[in-house]
Amino acid sequence: MDGDTRAPTSSSLAAAPRRTRTRSTCCYCGVGCGVLIDAEHDAQGSRITGIAGDPEHPANFGRLCTKGLNLPQTTRDTTGRALVPQLRRLRGDVRREVDWDVALDTVAERFASIVAEHGPDAVAFYLSGQLLTEDYYVFNKLAKGLIGTNNIDTNSRLCMSSAVSGYKLALGADGPPTCYDDLEQARTVLFAGSNMAYAHPVLFRRLEAAREAHPETKWIVIDPRRTDTAAMADLHLALQPGTDVALFNGMLHHLIWEGLIDPDYIDAHTEGFQPLKLMLREYTPRFVADLCGVAAEDIVQAAEWFGRSPAALSLYCMGLNQSSHGTDKNLALIQLHLATAQIGKPGAGPFSLTGQPNAMGGREVGGMATMLAAHREIADPEHRAELERLWKLPTQTLSDRLGLPAVALFDALRSGKVKAVWIACTNPVHSMPDINLVREALGKAEFVVVQEAFLNTDTVPYADVLLPATSWGEKEGTVTNSERRISRVRAALPAPGEARADWWIANEVARRIEARLAPPGAAPLFDFADTEAVFDEHRRLTVGRDLDIGGLDYALLESQGPQQWPFPAGASEGQARRYGDGVFATADGRARFHATAYKPVAEPISARYPLRLLTGRLRDQWHGMSRSGRAPGLFAHAPEPTLSMHPDDATRRGLSAGDLVRVTSKRGELLLPLAVSDEVGSGTVFAAMHWSGQFLASGGINEVSNGAVDPKSFQPELKHAAVRVEKAAFAWNLLAARRGDALALQIAVQPLLRECAFASLSLRADADPDSGQAWLVLRAAAETAPPQWLQRLAEVLQLQPEEHVLEYHDARRGLLKRVGWGHGAHNDRIEGLLLAGGQRDPASEALLDIALAGTAWTGSRLAVFTQRLAGAARDALVCQCMQVKESSIRAAIAQGADVDALKKRLGCGSVCGSCVPQLVRMCREIVDSG
User: Fold this and answer.
1) Does the reported pTM lie above 0.90?
2) 3-state helix, strand, coil in the chain (%, to 5)
3) Mean pLDDT throughout 853-877?
4) Is the pLDDT assigned to residue 12 strictly greater than 70?
5) Residue 56's domain is classified under what CATH number?
6) In CATH, what number is assigned to the domain containing residue 235?
7) Of the N and C termini of the chain, which has fewer Cβ atoms inside 10 Å?
8) Which residue range forms the structural domain that includes residue 397?
9) Per the database record, which ranges form the 4Fe-4S Mo/W bis-MGD-type domain (predicted)?
């Protein structure tokens, strides 16, 4: 490959400017796309200038989604980055910058002293599926091997733990038996609880191409919402939330009744089928139809397509996992495959789609509270003894007690059972359920360490020590994607400021704790010189295990590219599919059926809370938006947070689109603007999970979510909660916007958000893509303007009265309006506005549209305040890559264009393809409307 792929050294920066291209991996979802990172380096520093999909990477073959394509935007400067260690000496004090030795010594001393006084289980670690495998490994060894606690869990508990439990109970081991090549070879694809078009768009592109090549392929989508994925299905089963187990049981009932199961396979390779068959007698399609709210004929059709298919593949994600019965949902789906022998062959199998880039790598090294390294079990004394030998630990060093999984961990912190927590690369004050309890827990903890790349997450304010970590483009190591494929992550830039790699930070603290706790003469546990040394130790621990990678090392990954596990010594390549021989990872080699009876959601609706709240993802945002929220262009598809409600439900409540509504559960409340949509069924409402305290006056939708957990996987029911929705009218409303350094503006405005009853901010791309500028847009509401709030906001937005700011002030009516104008050649452009008081009105929205569009103002500037200002209807951006708006697409469709013609004529859908499902929907809508 052309170009220097090494990260530049400090000495090289003094040389003439140079360009590098670095082969690495995307940091977003579990697809694990390969990327080529372009960077420039000169005396002023280093910066990422571009990105492309790696055409040689087998996960994506050069494709990237909108999030991946916009990664350079998220790295354009260090505004908002954590760059220097910070320390708070006493609770209530402001954190002060310190050097690394002071920060590391403090963390080591506090953890060691708490362990000495209260025991090893008085401390805990909470990690992230976005850490690299090497990062995870060092943390896991620190917690379990040195301190002696299994209190190390991860946000993967919120994501993948029910899938892990399902695989282990049914097949004997964690890890999908499938691979990405199965996407092309499947002839029936069942999507369950996955809006794959949004969550895993690159893989969805492969499915689209496969169905185009094989039109006989059937798609079945099981989802309460009519998502973009569901809109493209041959059959959409819009079931009642939480009834997935009943639906799968009904399908299996029909398969048994019609003789579409494989008795020979069941007899030769499985156990436990008869008790399941007996339980399934009552799950007739008609009985299940009443439970699920779908037609019995559709259940039968889904079962027929699945059972008669030459290759049936199921793809599932958070809609199954994030449930108090998530393990049963996974098992019930896996059992469809076992009963029909749709497993271990091309195009067939149960495929859990990983949400985070390295949730699987974290599980491989045992970085969770309920497992040990290399898929060993905490409760197994032989596994503990084996790991003690490999780590050269004294016997009975490893704890035999399960650690505290995520929800229980923060409960223990709140009760005082756990005294100290170390949080790395995750934001639990946004992502955990019932986040007010998480705030209480961190507020009561004796000692909180936060290891983070970004300063303005919801969790950082609770840190007694803030450890600045490297982020994407600056890290070295490996990740494992959804198909068990291990890829190298390489640094394109040096670390900014004093930020350090996550593994290095954990290793340095471990060495300091080891010096305090280890007996004299003991072999050092943490003498890792680099990530390769960490990986080599990790792979040695896997030898002989189901995930054996004894034959894999950095050199082979460099020479042959990403590889799947297992990859034992002597192998020439990894294993693409598992269980093709019908031998499973159980003691007797047989898979296990389980009698999975349907159970309702943890929190039923009631007269007080009559609506079911569903949560999910947006197309162009990621998790809590600490990274994707730095790219203004990614707000275009969904500019603001909303709550979606069916039109009939809105009408009954006297609600209209744009109204502020109060969403209330037993645990808390938040305010959101209403969106009216028939994509949700009557009786349900939907909100995206991304919006956090960086962008809202609240912590987001987890203010009201349910913390009930699955008893097997300990995964919380983040997808469902019972809520009520009421109109929330306020006498004072504000709309403000400013063009400039949008990240700096966001950081300055963020502290003001919580002083309002409602506030939300978003970033928007500038009309001139080469300007280097962007827009911050702020909306707020309260009974009255918070004292001095408008003055502080005006200072931040630079909209105080002066020559280039026009003001209209009516104290009697409580109105204040200011418009800031550009300078010089741009003095006919609006560059800022602040419109406060009274109700939201169309004229304000029209003025915002004019400003964002960069439209030149004609006529008198005084007309800017007239209430007769006409605004065009909002023209939503559909294609982020080519900046194609809805009006252009609808006009082309009206002239007869189909999706292919839209790609050729307008360019939409021709780059990353993330908008293709929406294009398909728009074409169908116009055709269906006549």
Assistant:
1) yes
2) 35, 20, 45
3) 76
4) no
5) 3.30.200.210
6) 3.40.228.10
7) C
8) 86-158+358-564
9) 19-79
